[in-house]
């Protein structure tokens, strides 16, 4: 499909949510742009939102797969148990993921795709807000490509007598693709509300398209539970307490078993636990309209088990990161037309890393340094202030953040190292409302990514290379320029954004010439590169009738590494979707959607060396999916018919092919 054809299509059609007899975009809000509520239409940036109705109706298998096809987002899957979102051509530790305003990113987030988004149970999610091209001023390091804000569902107070409610969900996929059971219970009174859930899930080996078949091994098991409680302590004081826990076991890395002579290569466990307390205090004083105080503790654990074919050595690696976090945010009304959000943040990571080799022939166990220096610490301190001024038809946003770090590494190769990088970033946006139903904006966002423990302390095999630790690194920097236009009426909406992102001081792997370890080429990281990434996003939707909505999304990204005079690695191809959604009386819906991607043959040398990318590049593809559901009283039945034509396809850079023709059936009962 040519770029011209896609642009013509996008002129007539967009988004993706369940359709009522009104345009849901008029009421939707986002909290990420200025750390407070703001309507999507008024946001001076490119924002996409997946709401609760969308997530319920389409019953996506995993959190990464909820983003599959979302405007301006490209999802790469190294394995069936992973999924890494690309925002404006960047992923991994160059994009920021938040859960209820708390950072998921920690000091071992690596460059390039990772699996951490899949440690969030999709049944928890209330909505997902995607802010492309910004977020460093609001939330700190890593938001060079953008910010992904995941908001979990909260229990609601009862307006009269106490109530007890619940949900039971079962889901089954053909050929044992998925078996899921989920139960939720909630209690609500006038001043207390509690919601708890348990998910048991088993995923079989992923079945590819017409020529791929079953991709073995790729299946895994998952157990998750959660609880969230809200309390009204007084008229204007609210407390939220929450805990989330997810554990995945025996998650294979398919391409390593298939292509790299491994008998076993898996992640087990792959787990995350988050607990937090949050106070929200409202006030009549204009300089203290709302105060939010949050304290959190998050632990992640990644185990890696591997054994080569014809080898007697079984390797077990384990990395744990324990993160304590806290922030205070104050929303103020400086003048009737001038709002501000200001605050301070603190995060502290402690990293533990081990490695154990067992020789089954000699029964000898050898302990050695893990992937990271054991007992490393990574502390972040920040202060920020964000402002919004309305001047009739004009809107102005501006803000700044100062971030300081204290990184301590005690390594057998580097010795005792202390690094204290700092970053000062700012943003500025100017918007003009041409009429009540249209606006245009210009924005400038500076961003940064502080060097982390993964950059400084990695020792061992990563992907298809061997890395050595590095001590002298500085923050990466980004300078994102964006122009956008938004238009809406009660039946039609459209938006377009053009962006250009300058990337400086990029930390890159540099080959150590003439050195190999275990047949792997040796690399070391340095601040040696600069690049730019530019592109556009287009989204339109048209409510043809009160029951029928037609939509299309389109995104294109072009990246150039100016240092190497070659494309930026892993740049997604032109991609988008076209669909029709029919809704009848809130009881029945059907959606037909075509998701497509063009061929990506603009490859960096690193792409050409990557065994996950075919020689000559990744072919383009079109995949047709159908979603339908029917609700009767307390029972809802949903069917997802995936890849109707059984196309064999792979999203660019992935280590496993996409799902072939299959049916996922979901039964939900409310009580």
Automatic annotation (TrEMBL):
Membrane topology: Multi-pass membrane protein
Subcellular location: Cell outer membrane
InterPro entries: Beta-barrel_TonB, Beta-barrel_TonB_sf, Plug_dom, Plug_dom_sf, TonB-dep_rcpt-like, TonB_rcpt_CS
Database matches in Pfam families: Plug, TonB_dep_Rec_b-barrel
TonB-dependent receptor plug domain sequence ranges: 41-147
Family label: Belongs to the TonB-dependent receptor family.
Official protein name in the record: TonB-dependent receptor
Organism: Arcicella gelida
